[in-house]
Each structure stands twice: as C-alpha cells, then as structure tokens.
Write a structure and sequence with these properties.
Helix content: 10-25%
Radius of gyration: 25 Å
Oligomer: single chain
Number of strands: 15
Distance between the termini: 84 Å
Number of helices: 2
Largest sheet: 7 strands, mixed
Structural class: mainly beta
Length: 267
C-alpha cells in the first residue's frame, strides 16, 4: 500500500513539473469595412464615417477610409478631412417619416443600407418635485417630463441624459443608453415620466437628448450595451458579432434619428 502511495505521489509531482508554454497563433483576416452613418433632423449633423477593422492585438486606431464614393438618396456625401467624416453640402436636414438609402463604393466593393427616419414623440415640458431621502437616493429634486405620443405601435426611442459640469465647463453624459418603446407608455394622452434613480439640487443643469430609432438600430444599440456589461468576469455576456443593416460584407450601422434636446436648470 505504501509503495502504491509513493508511486501515485511521484506521478503527481511529475505532472506538476511538466509545464510547456503553448502559443496559439491567431491568423489575421482581411479587414472589413466599418460603417457609422446617421441622417438626423438636426441641421448639418448627418454624416457617414468609414474605417477598417484592425488586428485583434493591435493597439493602433482603426484606419479611416477616405477615398470612398458615398451618396444618400442620391445626395453626395464628400470626405471632410477636418472632421474625418463624409458630409453633405451645408443646409442638409433629414425629414421624419422618410426612408433613406445609403450607397458606398470603397476598395472596389459596393455596400448599401436602408433606414427609416421615424418621428419622435412630443415632449412638452420638464418639472421638478422635492422629495425626502428614500433608499439609496438622497433628499433632492426629482425631474419629470410631460409627453404625448400619438405614433402607432411599435416605435422606439434611444435616450441619453447627463448634466452640465460646472468645473470642467462642459456637458457630461451618462454611459448608460436608455432604450424603450411606445408600447410601454400611454398612447394618445399626456403623461409624466420621472427620470429614474436621480436626485438634483438647486442650480444643477440637467441635459436630455431623445432620438427616435428604427427597429434595426434598436437591436444594434441593445446588443452593443449587452457587450459592455457592468459586471466583469465570468458573469459578463460572451462576445458576439453585433447585428448590422449594412449589406455587402461590412459591419456597423446606418440609421435615422428624429432628435429632441432639452436643458432644465433646477430652481
């Protein structure tokens, strides 16, 4: 029995001592075109940005593609070196309830995409209510907006918010992107919605940007947010390819935004 124990113990030591460094080669693949395109209802804010995917281990920024030919509904988007984007002539503005077709010719290949610039629901005002401390929220003012949505089901909204940083003297936005649809809110009647998990003090300047999005962009943002979970380690979402509405072998998105911006200074 002792002899068997010695043999077993020696086998364990020999296995522990055998360490071999194994390097797995990850082959490079041909770079893919990355598209970031937007048509919005804000004056001169529409653009298309093109870049290429880079090696997984590369720390360099993705190279821009600057020699493509691009048009949106036949309107040329020309490369602007100062902005690093393709933009239309000044005065361009997207129209709600309109479809937009993107066509790209780059590196001998053609790519395309279609999006619908959906109408945003109406936001009439913001108001504040003082509330005592409750749970993890300190005492302070809650903020709510008054809205009216007469759009048919189902329409989607992408919402970011933040505040004006008086120290840095610039707008500061939360990393969280709020997605919801009008199946979750009252239809054809005014309603109030309180900004969740937030309290404000007198003098704070709150900022909100609402964007209408189509279903393709809703799915893209939702998938992107799931790729950036707040919980690190083994409980995070496994990496996966993001959905795209670009046809032709590229990745990224082309979308339309109906935009509403609000600033509210707490009294």
């Amino acid at each position: 029995m002792n002899k068997l124990s010695y043999i077993f113990f020696g086998l364990i030591l020999s296995l522990a001592a055998c360490k071999e460094k194994i390097e797995i080669a990850v082959p490079d693949s041909d770079p893919l075109l990355v598209v970031e395109g937007e048509v919005t209802t804000e004056l001169d804010s529409s653009y298309v940005k093109l870049s290429l995917t880079s090696n997984y281990y590369s720390a360099d920024q993705s190279p821009l593609v600057t020699n493509a030919t691009i048009n949106v509904n036949g309107v040329p988007f020309l490369y602007n070196a100062a902005k690093g984007k393709y933009i239309p002539n000044p005065g361009y503005i997207g129209k709600t309830d309109s479809s937009y077709s993107l066509n790209i010719s780059a590196n001998g290949k053609t790519f395309s995409a279609v999006t619908k610039l959906e109408k945003m629901f109406r936001i009439d005002s913001f108001f504040q209510v003082y509330k005592e401390a409750a749970g993890f929220l300190p005492a302070g003012f809650s903020l709510s907006y008054v809205a009216y949505d007469d759009r048919p089901l189902t329409k989607y909204t992408y919402f970011v918010n933040g505040y004006f940083d008086t120290i840095a003297q610039r707008d500061s936005f939360s990393d969280n992107k709020i997605l919801f649809d009008n199946a979750q809110t009252p239809a054809n009647e005014p309603y109030n919605f309180e900004i969740p998990f937030a309290r404000f003090n007198s003098g704070d300047e709150y900022i909100a940007i609402f964007r209408s999005v189509d279903k393709n962009m809703f799915d893209f943002i939702n998938a992107f947010e799931n790729q950036n979970p707040s919980i690190p380690g083994p409980f995070q979402t496994p990496p996966a390819n993001l959905p795209t509405n670009i046809v032709g072998g590229a990745v990224g998105y082309f979308t339309g935004y109906g935009v509403q911006r609000w600033r509210y200074k707490v009294k």
